[in-house]
Amino acid sequence: MRTILVATTALLSTTFGALAEGELNLFNWGNYTSPEMIEKFTAQTGIAVTVTDYDSNTTALTKVEAGGSGFDLVVPSANYIPVYVRKGLIAELDHSRLPNIGNIAAEWKDVPWDPGRSHSVPWQWGSVGIAVNTTVYGGDVNTSELFMDPPEELVGKINVVPEMTDVINMAIFNLGGEACTEDLELLKNVRDKMMAAKPKWLSMDYGTTDKLSSGDYAASVNWNGSTMRARINNPDIVYGYPKEGYPLFMDSVALLSDAKNVDEAYQFINFILEPENAAMISAFARYANGVAGSEEFMPEDMKTAPEIVTPAEFAAGGKFLPTCPQSAIDLYTAIWTELLK
Amino acid sequence: MSRRHTPGRSKGVNGWLLSTPALILLLLAASGPLIIVAIYSVLEKGDYSGVRWILSGEGWFRVLFEKDIFDQTISLADANLSIFWRSFKLSIATTVITFAFGLPTAWFIATRPAKSRAFWLFLITIPFWTNLLIRTFAIMEVIRNQGILNTFLMHSGLISEPIQILYTDTAVLIGMTYVYLPLMVLPLYAAIDRFDFRLIEAGYDLYASRWQVLRGVILPIIKPGIIAGSILVFIPSLGAYVTPRVLGGGKNMMIGNFIELQFGQGQNWPLGAALSTVLLLVVLVSLLVYTRASSRDNPNG
Amino acid sequence: MDKRRAFDVTTLPGFTTIAILAFILLYAPIVTLVIYSFNGGNSVNQWGGFSLQWYAVAAQNEAVQDATARSLIIAVWASVISTTVATMAALGTTRRGKFKGQTMIYVIINQPLMVPEIVTAVSLLIFFSSVKVATGYSGLGYLILAHSAFCIPFAYLPIKARLEGMDTSMETAAADLYATPWQSFRYVTLPLLLPGVIAGAMLAFIISLDNVIITEFVKSAGQDTLPTYMLGQLRRALTPEVNAISTALLALTILILTLFVFVTKKRD
Fold first, then answer.
1. Does residue C14 sit at the B interface (CB-CB below 8 Å)?
2. Taking the domains of chain B in order of start, what are their residue ranges?
3. Is 90 exceeded by the pLDDT of residue C199?
4. Is the minimum CB–CB distance between A331 and chain B shorter than 8 Å?
5. Residue A336 and residue B261: Cβ atoms within 8 Å?
6. Could you tell me the pTM of the whole model?
């Protein structure tokens, strides 16, 4: 009992000391932050970094919005950045304090969700496509028909990740619509086609890397980095880029308006824009970053990975999802509820 | 029933006094904040999360009715109802199955020699020292197509094709039974342990069959334990979230997942709040009915 | 036991078989989990040869160790606090005959059972956030408070089940012998009640250890528990590292229990 008391007192008091010099609180997706990179940062600057995990954009937004969370930096997805900005939750970045700001790769310097990168810098980006086990299905993998109308071989063997926004938008692309569309005629077709396809799906679940590797799933709507890890375990896995269109995502680092450790946060942001450090982030989580020149520091197997380096012919299909208006989200939630009832 | 130090009229005062610490804790960190939820259910939904402070009946309307997004007709919310109904069915089944396993297990433990009882009790709880998520993944390991169960059955020649258990309602039932079994066993054990086995003796002396003894002597005496166990299993099952998501494959929601959807990706807090309030009321009413009923046949109750 | 009868009256047909079966079913997944903690591969479901590498990984991962320690500390506090107040409440609401408001107490105590976690989580987040902003304190206290509260019904119900119908004659006898209420509680009621209290405390402990959603919403910076740490990994891939941690935790539990049994035996 005494040890517990002592340990508790120690833990209880650590947060009181949070204002001490050289502290930084990063609020990031789980299993997304390279520990080696953090170690290097601490060694260089003497700033102790505490990483706290979240599991979804909505959880992160809800916690930050409630206030008093004690975080300094957060890593929202592209379509959430404008929401943070509109609600005044993240601060405008002072580029003069970021000597490395110029290292952001040209294509990520001015993005629709954050014009001029005034509020965020790239962390990692990737795509949502379809992973297929070629021993089960030998046909064309670069199409979203694989889950919207599964071929015979994949019936009862395909998984769809339960990400409402990604999946519905992929279905909209499949039927020729635009992201965030509110075209009811089209959405009706989307619903009907998904309702007809659902009985042919095995499951709607996460944890795809393992189940693809082990052969429990013959195919899955999946992220590119996860597919790469599955392919390393099981060479029969390939990643398909649906030609009808597929969602891209980019998670970016932003400084919270109520951050207490602003100086440290700037040092950190500047640090991750260094190509070598950005490559460490990618090497850990297996997604591309947005920093020019980081390629040469990347692990060998990522430089050529077909999941990471999008083949030119499929690059046009990748689309960033804008922040859909609330009315569109309501429509999608209704379809999703109908689908999962 | 005269007790020197607790005269009858101070019963209530003492009852309240003894319950006060628990009540304060609950009001501070459980029931009190729920008022927020009740308030949210009658507000307008906010921009991408949260609420706007404008009164609105939309959340409550959407619990029972849905406006077809395509032709704008209003009908009973059949999706919501089938989600509620599925949760209800699965929770009843879970309670029944945990009882079927729990009673013999609790009985077995309670009839061990006094010294080894603690050992068996710990044996029940040890699997639960591993986290729920890991346990659920471990169950998945056992029942999946290439898992232990199917491999074993195929090797022994009982089946030639793996049985698809994972991602079915059966998998959810197996998982929930596993997760909630100790919640049934421990209260049952607590009730059986104070059981006077001379009563069974007396029962047999009256030439009752084993079944009659079980029904006529044992069950009535351990009834408080059965009720406690059933409440502990049934109610959390209703709101279960992790098990249906992982073992059920997430293709069909239970209430817990549905409410989470509203607070999460659906970004409709008022509907989520209204759904929670409905669930709360359903459970509250059934608890009230139960306390009324049980206090009628048990004056001590 | 009565020797006249051909069978032991405490056994019921099939009960032992079902009980043994229940134990086997409880341990089958745990055994799998332990086996995969020694996996040489990087998957939780594909065997890649025997190796201790994941123990090495876990031993180096400070985040996981901190999270595990934090989970245990919260669970110990939550079970001690909730069992104490639940025992008091159970004594207050059982065997005293009816009193005004008894049903209401009963309903409030069981309230945490009635609401899906996500609802409690969101309301606690909103409430605690305003407290955090107002007081500036953002330590583990909030998590301990929240865990203690939702553990109360889990501790209360087994204790109440034990108390109900527990013979009152012993306490009446104690009172007749001029024992103070405290004395009769300490030397008569508590020993009789102990199995219920132990059952309640164990339930509270595992319920706290398992909690994900409420913790995820209430935690402040740097307060990941083992479950929230794993929730964050769920979308990506779980590695046998979590199996290794769980196995280590199991081994530790068994060790402590064995020591406990050993020590108490010696004292006898």
1. yes
2. 2-76, 78-296
3. no
4. yes
5. yes
6. 0.82
